Prior knowledge:
Low-confidence stretches: none
Shape: globular
Largest sheet: 8 strands, mixed
Strand content: 15-25%
Structural class: alpha+beta
CATH class of the largest domain: Alpha Beta
CATH superfamily of the largest domain: Glutamine synthetase/guanido kinase, catalytic domain
Mean pLDDT: 93
Radius of gyration: 22 Å
Number of strands: 14
Order of helices and strands: HEEHEEEEHEHHEEHEEHEEEHHHHH
Number of helices: 12
Number of domains: 2
Distance between the termini: 60 Å
Helix content: 25-40%
CATH architecture of the largest domain: 2-Layer Sandwich
Amino acid sequence: MADQRPLPEEARAFLQSNDSVGNIDLLITDANGIVRGKRIRRDVLCKVYEKGVCLPGSVFGCDICGDTVEATGLGFDRGDSDDICYPVPGTLSLTGWRSGADAQLIMSMFEADGTPFFADPRQVLNRVLERLQADGLEPTIAVELEFYLLDRRCAESGDPRPPVSPVTGERESSTQVYGMAELDGYSEFLDEVHRLCTIQGVPADTAVAEYAPGQYEINLHHVADALAACDQATLLKRIIKRAAERFGMDATFMAKPYADRSGSGTHIHVSMLDGDGGNIFEDADPEGSARLKHAVGGLLDAMPESMAILAPNANSFRRFQPGNFVPMTPCWGVNNRTTALRIPAGDPPARRIEHRVAGADANPYLVVAAVLAGMHHGMSQGLQPPPALEGDAAAAETGTLPPSWLHAIEALEQGTVLPGYLGADFVRVFAACRRHERQSFEAGVTPLEIDWYLRTV
């Protein structure tokens, strides 16, 4: 259900309770997952609640470098015109930053007539949620985000490198998955993340050391509000980056920053509640209920055309390599981390689907929209999945996913499921941005090409 317009009293009460607040950041997330917006003074906040704030719709037609892609039709074709952004209720909070804005507010874009703006990722997700809610269903979502901490100074080659441990004074070099010493070494950073999450109302749950030096994962607690779950994931990314900066490091959600180390993913856990609050996936069978299997069938059916959203750029596809716990084919299994869709072990009331394909570089709103669209598609059509896989999914023949960025864009454009859920106009704009970005990327000459070909051909 669409967010209701918040009353100005929300802003007045916040300002009254926080008289030290001077600046407020108004945040809106583009299709790349980049947070854009405006910074205002406190005396403007109530006006924003009453009348909104203008931003050009072209912010949703930008490539990763922030350049407007004219092929989207959101730039000069419409005079680079403004649309109205209104606050999302309940998202006004302190930031806890030690510099910069004192508070922040998530916004969403609408047309002049009040219609949700078709290319706003938050509105795209809401469009999918309305389909589920019309059937009396409400998803519960938990997001897991992997990322790397980096030394702010690159190696002499220009390549990124892991940070120096604050405890040992030595550069991280070993893979200690779930290692407690790795958590202890960066406890001040993790404490800062926790402090900021508490202030901003982001329900961070657990942190683990991941499958490479300097790689970590922070999980968000599940919430029965898909929009809020994605708001929180977006804020968590900002928090992690700001916390890293405080301790002289960078944090990256790039899917594959190192050629020889694991990539970083975004894992989405989804259960589905009915009108009475019961989990329709619950079943004593570890594979879950019949409706869970239908949801799996829909996700597998829609997965090829979802790849442009799950893996949105050139680097995204470097993550899909054997032996790195990254699914290479559309498949599912119970308690099996090699599959694209995993049914985690646990008590039947917590039965859920873990979607493991998306990279950490993907937009959380769009990833969740694609996942929920696939699930609803499967449940509404009664689709049956193939048998669940056991063992290494890489050794099984279970179909293929688009192997490259271009193939993924084409699969989305030719899709038979997602355009009907996300909106054909949104798909057109998103694909135009990805095509433009790909053309710009392909026009570059890489250092490896110079090394291989300059003097040998």
